[in-house]
Amino acid sequence: MKTSLKLLAALVLISNFCFGQDFSKKIDSIIKDNYQKNPNIGISVGFIKDNEEYYTAYGNLNSETPIEINKNSIFEIASITKILTSNLIAQAVIENKIKLEDCIDKYLPKGYILHKNLKNKIKISDLCSHQSGLPDIDFGKLIELDSQQPVNSVTENTLTSLVNNCTELTDYGKFRYSTIGYTLLGQILEKVYDKTYDEIIRNKIIEPLQLTNTFTKDFNVKNITTGHNPNGGIQEFFKWNCTASAGLIKSSASDMITYLKAVLNTKTQIAKAAILTEKIFYKDEKREIGLGFNISTDEKNTIYLKSGDSMGQCSILCYNRDKNWGIIILLTERNSKMRQDLLNKIYDEILK
């Protein structure tokens, strides 16, 4: 009997290993084919299945160097920062510092003076799920002012003026993607923890997970990739200021997989917070929204996903808790169609 059990265990181990190898080869084949068709766009992909990690990457850090992109190369993950911010919000809920149903009034910095029509109406969960109705930062105008560093001109006064001059929430309760919503969430976190957003995300995510390739304000490192706009021109990484909680983070495939590993391990504080963010807080005929990301369902799967677009790079992160897998795709060009096509192909042919 003991011999049979040992043999069974060995067979299961071999089977899982073979499945993992097959999984890895299929994804690598898709990524390699895409790179051969688009050799000017570097790519790094990380994926995790049943706690086993796999990576593939193609291209160079930039056109001036022979150094190849790998799993530790640094990309601008932009709005994927929002799922980290929402995880911090959920951690604050678990620690009884805030409630998702709390109105934002008492948590905002002193400079904010809400109009009477807005008082005691906007909940923290509304900010997280993009349904607050607040006016947003006009990125189109900011890009016209400075296409390389559009958020440079956004100040605390910019934010307070937007909120304080708002007299009606004309689309409150309806989905409208919001940068200012996540900026306010960062400020709420700073108030309840009495620390900067930078300190909070380091203390609660970056340092506990030992994310050695994840950066906030200072990202002057050797293994950083170069971003390109849709026309192929070089694009600087954003230097976020007071809007940091909406898009600050620079990271790598390896660190994002470490984060996903923590999310999928239900014993971690990050996973407990993630499970809270996975509840549906907004739903219409087009979408379901948790705290910080989209929720996509079919008859067999529930997928949690978030994309990130800067002016020069794009990325997407998603995971399936029930089937215990996650994936991160990072591109050196702002090309959302390529990003989505890659994810769709990998999902349809392998993960589904």
From TrEMBL:
Native organism taxonomy: Bacteria, Pseudomonadati, Bacteroidota, Flavobacteriia, Flavobacteriales
Swiss-Prot/TrEMBL keywords: Signal
Signal peptide stretch: 1-20
UniProt similarity note: Belongs to the beta-lactamase family.
Domain Beta-lactamase-related: 31-338
Taxonomic source organism: Flavobacterium bernardetii
Protein's name according to its UniProt entry: Beta-lactamase family protein
